[in-house]
Amino acid sequence: MIPLRDVIPSRTTPYITVTIILINAVAWMYEVSMPRQQLAVFLDIFGVVPADFVPTTLLTSMFLHGSWSHVIGNMWYLWIFGDNVEDRMGHGRFIVFYLLCGCVAAFGQILLDPESTVPMIGASGAIAGVMGAYFVLYPQSRVLTLVPFIIFVDIIELPAIFLLGFWFLMQLFSAGAIAVTASTGGSGGVAFMAHVAGFVMGLIGVFVFRKKRQEPWMY
Fold first, then answer.
1. What pLDDT, on the 0 to 100 scale, is given for residue 213?
2. What fold characterizes domain 2-180+188-209?
3. Which residues of the chain have pLDDT under 50?
């Protein structure tokens, strides 16, 4: 299921969401400009390597990606869900919340496989936190979604609580499956536990970071 847009307009301009997307885009273009060997060294330095953990990589890793589909998919999800969450938190609180979710997500994956030497990169954990916050703030929202069936695709509106709940369960089951077969120094893949940890952090953290009440419109 591919979300296309939600039905709730943002009351404010999502400056932080747009800025995060632009930073990720610039970082990705820098990555693709690098020779393969140089890129591998770059990701080892700025990605999170559980077996050789460096605290600053918790921040740098969430602005790096591994493929076009990786960065486009992440930024698309952030664009759909981030503006409304930023609206409810305010710009300053939202950036702190986003970075905190990303850090917690990385620790979730580290706990799953602390001896791994594979660098972990991507904004998925932080964006999972945004999705967790959206799950709490807008459970009645509906999301226009592209749903592939066996021989055709359809576009339908799904309740946000169903779409995001289904997504979380998929990540949870996948993380459990990987935990059973995790081995040190693997070839990489999707850090499902980071998604789970980020989403849970979003579910909890939203109660701290959201505005206590909506500010009224003035006219």
1. 62
2. Rhomboid-like fold (1.20.1540)
3. 183-187, 217-219
What ranges do the domains of the chain cover? Answer: 2-180+188-209
Burial class (CB within 10 angstroms; exposed 0-12, middle 13-18, buried 19+) of 61: buried
Helix (H, G, I), strand (E, B) or coil at 32: helix
| Residues in CB range of 136: below 8 A, 6 or more apart | 202, 203, 206, 207
What DSSP string describes 123-186?
A: SHHHHHHHHHHHHHH-TT-EEEEEEE-SS-EEEEEEEHHHHHHHHHHHHHHHHHHHHHH--TT-
Q: What is the model's pLDDT at position 218? A: 41
pTM for the predicted model, two decimal places? 0.89
SS3 call for 56: coil
Closest by alpha carbon to 207, among 109, 55, 91, 85? 85
Tokens read off for 20: 């995060």
Q: Angle between the 124-137 and 160-181 helix axes, to the nearest 10 degrees?
A: 140
